[in-house]
Amino acid sequence: MNHEVIDEKRREFLGKSSLALSVATIGVSAMTTAAADYKRNPFTLVYGGAITKNEPGKVNIHPVKYKLNGLDIVANVYTPANYDPKKKYPAVVVAHPNGGVKEQVAGLYAQHLAEQGYITITADAAYQGGSGGRPRSVDKPSHRIEDIHGMADFITRYPGVDAARLGLLGICGGGGYSLSAAKSDKRFKSVATLSMFNSGRVRRNGFADSQMATIQQRLKQASDARAQENAGGKILYAGDADMTDEQIAALPFEMYRQGYEYYWRTHAHPGSTFKYTMSSLLDLMRWDATDQIELIEQPLLMIAGTKADSLYMTEDAFVKATGTKNKELFKIEGATHIESYWVPKYVEAALGKLTPFYAKTL
């Protein structure tokens, strides 16, 4: 059973807005926009160049479902061209961004890595997308980290996977959670991040540490939201917005401006939303992706764009990752945070580092 809940407002918004933003405003071609319509892909994939059908001799996609702590988790497994379950392949777990789903950027990178000979998996986080869990859109670090462990549990038992050659790739918020997962889960022989987003630091301090003065006030709001929720009252949400193009353009940070364009316009998917329960902030605001990061002893590759206004998070984590003797920070010249998700030349640059990294470490 699919536990995904999408309110009618979101459905209406997606239907009206997918073609509403002009090509000139978004800066993408009409062909890319059309390719990003989830309704046109049998697997509801929204990224350019996505698989539309499984063909012999090519990379194939396999929708799967498994249980994690009693919840139904939905995932996509990508297998390499000419996949033979009797052979042994290295594998990579791909963790999606905050608010994202497996059909977006996580699927794009999972598909490209499968083209390089890896079996890959990307799953919708518990309580999000097509996976189970109520209330919807709970976004707690412990759950997101457990999602990553759960993907490792599943994929290491998948036919053809060499469990001794397991890598991890975390994108945006999934990057911060991947750092936490790799600290203790030594099944991961190497870990990479793309446009890493430290969810705890941002929820606590604000983006670019811009809300330090209101931490206690926001903690009180989160505490009240939990009390109301626990008493059976209305569940309060943060991060949800039905924004006009003008409101998006007025946002103060490029990551959020381009993020709304990506998630609500060019790569919109009905399972994807910025929304999360207000009570989740009790967990998020006391957590940090860099806590005990020195426990990571595996090879570490961190990738971010030179023009990403989130770059400071990757640079901060990289310096603090003192436990590994094999680490590299690679900056994609000219790329912003969101552009690393889909702009072909920036995706190619990221894969140009990821491919040799996994080849050496797995």
Automatic annotation (TrEMBL):
Keyword Kinase: no
Entry annotated with the keyword Magnesium: no
Single GO molecular function: hydrolase activity
Keyword terms, alphabetized: Hydrolase
One Pfam entry name: Peptidase_S15
InterPro entries recorded: AB_hydrolase_fold (IPR029058), Polyketide_trans_af380 (IPR051411), TAT_signal (IPR006311), Xaa-Pro-like_dom (IPR000383)
Residue intervals of the Xaa-Pro dipeptidyl-peptidase-like domain: 70-242
Protein name: Hydrolase of the alpha/beta superfamily protein
